[in-house]
Amino acid sequence: MVDLVNQYKEIRLEIDTAIRETIEQGAFINGPAVGRFRDELSIYLDVPYVVTCANGTDALQVAMMALDLKPGDEVITSNFTFIATVEVIGLLGLKPILVDVNPHTFNIDPDKLRKAISPRTKAIVPVHLFGQAAQMEEIIKIGKEHNIAIIEDTAQALGAHYKFPNGQSSRAGTIGEIGTASFFPSKNLGCFGDGGALFTRDEKLAQKMQMIVNHGSKIKYYHDLIGINSRLDTIQAAILRVKLKMLDVYNSSRQTAAAFYDEHLKNHPGILIPRQTGTGTHIYHQYTLRVLNGKRDQLKAALAKLGIPSMVYYPVPLSLQKAFHYAGYQKGDFPVTEQLCNEVLSLPMHTELQIEQQEFIVKSLLSNL
Asked: Whole-prediction pTM value?
């Protein structure tokens, strides 16, 4: 699904130098590379404040803690996403309110989001799934109407743009009150372990989040808040500094690979290719098809026999996960998400995909439908 080894070979010298310099400095926690990466990511995203942390799940938790959400407060998010988005809601004693998604873009449906608002709603977490931003204009409008904070889950869309009708363009993750990111190795910007970050335009929120990730402390051994221990390792920051310079190139390579898939798969009646909204860029963290007529699992097995990996993101709606049984959702409550879980299939997508590889993938896929 990803080829991190060959990606590393292309930037081996810079990566090895960055790691060696960090080791020679001996500053493994909050070393110079962490601050430099934070500043460089701030410039890239055109957002004034970036707070680094240990992983993308921590980033979501810190965002909710910084907004002073209290047990029982409702947080609305997508039913079709990775569990981390909802996991932290449950961990903090908040109430997850799940919403169905658009069947073509896989992102949260703003109309259904609006209907889920209640007096107890304190935050909305749109997930920019698979590399394309959710419909942020409408989501921001809803948030302002009801005085609800927006936390953008940008784990899969770092570097994507969202374009507003007035022509203004912003990076995904910089539009709401807080944006969060994951630097898991397979992400478009991935380190060699775990890593995460938060971004905001609000100075007070930034200061609070920085304290939360550092045991609630601003001055060493003085703790003003209940916080957590969530740090981006210096070695990972050094690696991310190298890869951040390549992020737009990496995203462009994924878009080229996606265009090849689109061209060769768009006319087959048994599949639906991913749809772009037209309100920004899609950077294809995943290239996710819908396989119709109940043939998804059969196709996945056939591809596996030919040595072609594929993945189902995601096989079970969050509403039907055992961990969230307490939320009271039943089968049939989210027809779009439930259908997608039976149809979606993600094909290999990474920066090192070769035309010959894609030709083999496409030929194999079409001959087994």
From this structure: 0.97
